[in-house]
């Protein structure tokens, strides 16, 4: 016999499932963590949460032995071994192994940018991009080169820097076969082949090879200074100037 929810008419196979479902309407969370007092609507969710405190990871990958706190994380991880991609974009048919990755990809079509910087109101399509951006305000450099100890604000910048030590040039120009160290350098190089692709400033008509340089230039017209020092609140038009300024507080040598 099916048990129907009196709020949304959804049917459940058993009474216990209906009881759990009703909490989604009432907001009731009867299961509380004894360590941090966080509450949950289901006992299983509490069990998974407790492992955050205990460090327990009972779910092990049978391929590479990496362990996980919850079974759903293990299932997602297994797809990196099988290559399965069940999530397909309905706009361009590109496939992904995770639903979250598909949702992020869809924003490249919609232009949606739900992650906003509370300091300068810049918006981003992904949370990781916002976290990287926030370091331009704080001057934080968490990624250190193990060869020369230079520090960087993002993992991508560190990876690009490491190529200066290895000499590897993995990105090849399809026009002249020249090899470049990173994808950004390749994009800039390709513009030397594409005549007339330079971006034009609508104020003074000065031309720039990429949108980043054009945006920085436009600030000289608008006076916009989106990069703020967290110590003294002085503002700057570009992140490089902020980085140099932050050293005046930390006494860091360039």
From TrEMBL:
PROSITE patterns: ZINC_FINGER_C2H2_1 (PS00028), ZINC_FINGER_C2H2_2 (PS50157). Keywords: DNA-binding, Metal-binding, Nucleus, Repeat, Zinc, Zinc-finger. It is found in: Nucleus. This is Gastrula zinc finger protein XlCGF49.1-like. One of its GO terms (cellular component) is nucleus. GO terms for molecular function: DNA binding; zinc ion binding. The gene is LOC117644970. The keyword Zinc-finger applies. It comes from Thrips palmi. It comes from the Eukaryota. GO terms for biological process: regulation of DNA-templated transcription. The keyword Nucleus applies.
């Amino acid at each position: 016999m099916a048990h129907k929810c009196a709020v949304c008419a959804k049917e459940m196979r058993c009474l216990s499932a209906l009881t759990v479902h009703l909490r989604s309407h009432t907001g009731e969370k009867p299961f509380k963590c004894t360590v941090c007092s966080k509450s949950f609507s289901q006992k299983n969710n509490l069990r998974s949460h407790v492992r955050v405190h205990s460090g327990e990871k009972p779910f092990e990958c049978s391929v590479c032995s990496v362990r996980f706190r919850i079974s759903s994380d293990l299932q997602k991880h297994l797809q990196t071994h099988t290559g399965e991609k069940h999530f397909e974009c309905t706009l361009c048919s590109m496939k992904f192994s995770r639903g979250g990755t598909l949702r992020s990809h869809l924003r490249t079509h919609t232009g949606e940018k739900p992650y906003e910087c509370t300091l300068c109101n810049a918006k981003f399509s992904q949370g990781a991009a916002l976290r990287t951006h926030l370091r331009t305000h704080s001057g934080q450099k968490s990624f250190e080169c193990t060869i020369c100890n230079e520090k960087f604000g993002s993992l991508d910048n560190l990876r690009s820097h490491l190529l200066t030590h290895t000499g590897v040039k993995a990105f090849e120009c399809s026009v002249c076969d020249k090899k470049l160290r990173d994808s950004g350098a390749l994009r800039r190089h390709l513009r030397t082949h594409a005549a007339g692709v330079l971006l034009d400033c609508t104020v003074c008509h000065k031309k720039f090879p990429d949108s980043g340089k054009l945006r920085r230039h436009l600030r000289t017209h608008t006076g916009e200074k989106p990069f703020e020092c967290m110590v003294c609140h002085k503002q700057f038009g570009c992140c490089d100037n902020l980085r140099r300024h932050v050293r005046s507080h930390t006494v860091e040598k360039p």
